[in-house]
Design goal:
This protein is α/β, with parallel strands linked by helices. The protein contains 18 helices and nine strands. Bound molecules: flavin mononucleotide. Flavin mononucleotide binds next to strand 4 and helix 16.
Length: about 400
C-alpha cells in the first residue's frame, strides 16, 4: 500500500506521555512560528490557500470556516475539537488521540490563535473515556511549557449518542442539554456555543494544521486532487487480514487501500464513510477516494462474497433509526418506515412496491431532513438498489412464491 504518513508521522514514534519526546521531533515549532512570526489573518490565509478540508465527514473548507469566526466580532470565541468519532467503522481519531495527543494540542493552539478563541474543548467520545487522563496530562504539560497562554483546553466527555457528533447537537450537549440538531443558519462560526462564534473541527483536520504552517500551503496543496488536498487517514475493517489505520494521499484508489489487506477477487463490496456511507461494489475498486467521489469519515468496511448486502443495509438503517434525534419528521418517520420495509423484505414478506416506496423515502429524506443524519441515511439504500438490485428482487420473488403457496399473508 502506498502510504504517506503526514498526520500519523509521530504515531508509534513519539512517547505520547512525554512532551519532550514530541518536541525533540520538532513539535510545537509550528505554533511558535504561528504565534511569533505570523498575524492571525496570515494563518487563516495559509490554511485557506492550502485547501485543507474537514476530515469529519462533510469536507467543508477549514480556512473559510476559520475566516468567518475570525471576522465575527465577539468578546468570547470557542474552539471545539470533535473527538466524538461515533461513525460506524471509524477508529482513526482514537488511534491519533492515543498515539499523538501533542499533535492535536498543537493544532488546537494554532487554530485558537488564528480565530481568537480563548477556550477550547476536546469533545471526547464517551467510550474513549480511558483516554481522558492521558489527554489531560498532555494538556497540563503543554500548559507548563507556556503554550496555552492564549487559550486553555479542557476535555469534555461526550454523551454516548451518535447524533452528538453532529456539530450543532454537540454544542447542545456541551451546553448541558439533550443533543439535537439545530436549524442552520446561523452556522457555528457566526453563532455557536452559548451564542458565541465557535470553530468545530475534527481531530484529523486539526492534526494537519501544524505541518501546513511548518511546510507552507503550497507543499500541502501539491498533494491530492482538485477539491481534496493532502492525505486522508482511513480506518479499514471487516473482511480483511490486517484491519487498521492507514494514511494515503487523497485521490488514491479504493483498490490501493484494500488490495494488500484482502483478496480483491473475493470482495463483494466496500462501504466507505460509515453507516450512511456509499457502498462500492467489488468491480469498482478503482474508484478514487476523495471528496469528489467517495470519502466521508474515511471508514472502509470490506464485505466478502459470503456477505448479504440487504442484511447489511438493514443493519445500517436500524442503527440510524435508533440514533436519529427525532427532531425532524423526514428523518424520524422516514427511518421508521425504512426499518419496517427492510423487516418485511428479510422476513419474506416484501413486494415490488416496497422498492418504489424506498426510493421515494430516500428522495424526501435527502431533500427535507434537518441534518446530515437524515440527509445521508438514504445513501447505502440507493447504492444497494443500484448495484445489488437482483438481491432485492430475489427476496421479492421468494416472498411471492411463499404467498402463492399460502405460506405468507
Ligand atoms: C450524525 C452525524 C454525526 C457526526 N459525527 C461526527 C464525529 O463523530 N466526528 C466528527 O468530526 N464529525 C462528525 N460529524 C460532522 C460534524 O457535524 C462536523 O461537520 C465536523 O465536526 C466539522 O469538522 P471538520 O470540518 O473538521 O470535519 C457528524 C455529522 C453528523 C450529521
Amino acid at each position: 500500500m502506498p502510504e504517506k504518513r503526514i498526520v500519523l508521522k509521530n504515531c508509534g514514534v513519539v512517547d505520547p506521555g512525554d512532551i519532550a519526546s514530541y518536541m525533540e521531533r520538532g513539535g510545537f515549532e509550528a505554533l511558535v512560528k504561528a504565534r511569533d512570526a505570523m498575524k492571525p489573518h496570515q494563518i487563516v490565509d495559509e490554511i485557506k490557500s492550502s485547501g485543507l478540508t474537514g476530515r469529519g465527514g462533510a469536507g467543508f473548507s477549514c480556512g473559510l470556516k476559520w475566516e468567518l469566526a475570525r471576522k465575527t466580532k465577539s468578546k468570547k470565541k470557542y474552539l471545539i475539537c470533535n473527538a466524538d468519532e461515533g461513525e460506524v467503522g471509524t477508529f482513526k481519531d482514537r488511534y491519533i488521540l492515543t498515539n499523538d495527543p501533542f499533535g492535536l494540542i498543537e493544532g488546537m493552539c494554532i487554530a485558537g490563535h488564528a480565530v481568537g478563541a480563548d477556550h477550547g474543548y476536546i469533545y471526547l467520545r464517551a467510550e474513549y473515556n480511558h483516554l481522558h487522563d492521558s489527554l489531560r496530562h498532555g494538556i497540563e504539560q503543554a500548559r507548563g511549557k507556556g503554550f496555552l497562554k492564549h487559550m486553555d483546553i479542557e476535555v469534555f466527555e461526550g454523551a454516548g449518542a451518535y447524533i452528538c457528533g453532529e456539530e450543532s447537537a454537540l454544542m447542545d450537549s456541551i451546553e448541558g442539554r439533550r443533543g439535537e440538531s439545530r436549524y442552520k443558519p446561523p452556522f457555528p462560526p457566526a453563532r455557536g456555543l452559548w451564542g458565541h462564534p465557535t470553530i468545530i473541527n475534527n481531530v484529523e483536520t486539526l492534526m494537519n494544521v501544524p505541518p501546513i504552517i511548518k511546510n507552507g500551503a503550497s507543499w500541502f496543496s501539491a498533494m491530492g486532487t482538485q477539491r481534496s488536498k493532502g492525505t486522508k487517514v482511513f480506518s479499514v475493517s471487516g473482511d480483511v487480514n490486517k484491519p487498521g489505520v492507514y494514511e494515503l494521499v487523497m485521490g488514491s484508489s479504493l483498490r490501493e487501500l484494500v488490495v494488500d489487506l484482502a483478496d480483491a477477487r473475493d470482495i463483494k463490496a466496500v462501504q466507505v464513510g460509515g453507516a450512511a456511507g456509499r457502498i462500492i461494489p467489488g468491480h469498482m475498486l478503482d474508484t478514487a477516494l476523495s471528496h469528489e467521489t467517495v470519502l466521508g469519515s474515511g471508514a472502509a468496511v470490506v464485505f466478502n462474497a459470503s456477505r448479504d448486502i440487504i442484511d447489511m443495509v438493514h443493519n445500517n438503517v436500524r442503527f440510524l433509526h435508533e440514533e436519529s434525534c427525532g427532531k425532524c419528521t423526514p428523518c424520524r418517520d422516514g427511518l421508521e418506515a425504512m426499518v419496517e420495509i427492510y423487516g418485511r423484505l428479510v422476513g419474506g414478506e416484501g413486494a415490488e412496491q416496497d422498492l418504489r416506496i424506498l426510493e421515494d423515502l430516500c428522495k424526501t429524506m435527502t431533500l427535507a431532513s434537518l441534518c446530515g443524519l437524515g440527509q445521508a441515511a438514504p445513501t447505502p439504500v440507493l447504492d444497494s438498489l443500484e448495484y445489488f438490485r437482483n438481491e432485492y428482487e430475489r427476496l421479492i420473488r421468494q416472498a411471492a412464491h411463499l404467498r402463492s403457496y399460502g405460506m405468507r399473508g
